[in-house]
Design brief:
two-stranded parallel ribbon; 6-stranded mixed beta sheet; Macro_dom-like; Macro domain-containing protein; globular; alpha/beta; binds adenosine-5'-diphosphate; disordered C terminus; single chain; 269 residues; Leucine Aminopeptidase, subunit E, domain 1
Length: 269
Amino acid sequence: MAPIAAADIPTLNLLYKLKKLDTSSSPSPKRASDHNDRVGLIRADITSLAVDAIVNAANKSLLGGGGVDGAIHRAAGPQLLSECRTLNGCETGSSKITDAYNLPCKKVIHTVGPIYDEIRPERSKASLQSCYKSSLELAVQHGLKTVAFSAISTGIYGYPSGEAAMVACEAVASFLDGDDGKKLDKVIFVTFEEKDVRAYNQALPRFFPPAAETSAYQGMNAESDPDEGDQAEAKAEAEAKANQLPSVPTTDPADPSRTQKKQKQDTEA
Ligand code: ADP
């Protein structure tokens, strides 16, 4: 599969223009997010992305596992495991960085998500927020500008996808609002399974609301809008761009290695 460049991953602005993100169930925003041209969304195998950094949902040992971790280690080759062995593991909510070896990205950021704790969901939320924040901090420290996140903790670690997507969007939005956020060109959410596609479709418009003219919020004023010609042109341009986008999996991938990480010694979040 040919690698997908960061520039080819659709931004939220483009997706709103194409009405590929449903804003109908979100509350009408007070104002559009400033970040919609620096946040991307794609349903893809994260190992195919030629971005500066991909973020791996690792476990505390950092020695590989199932799910996305397994896919990343397989695609990167055995040198990744050798480098990971030198890192002495990683705490839940923290992140470490390695080279990417045979992957098309430049670096891999390994973050350890929480195993979802339904008795203490607030604790899980704080750890998950910290995963996103610490990963983005590492990216900035290393001068990496395009960062793609897998849906941390939503697989084997059992974090409900809807809640996890909200935490992810909130944490990324708040990082982009800060001074260090200006140093990033694009933060990309990578979905894989259908449940995460649905979760991000719901969460993104809440935390990154569309500008009025690109959203379903335009309502009654649309017909009398003097900029209608410009909008039609922008839509045509967006559609032309979208036709060049890479195709994404249409069915949920079956991954026989998914159960492997559970068998590892990680027992607490
Ligand atoms: P965790 O243990 O943190 O839950 P998993 O790897 O089990 O980590 O799952 C995290 C997310 O990664 C899930 O949403 C899963 O669907 C997704 N995923 C699995 N394989 C890939 C892949 N190759 N590319 C992108 N996402 C993937």
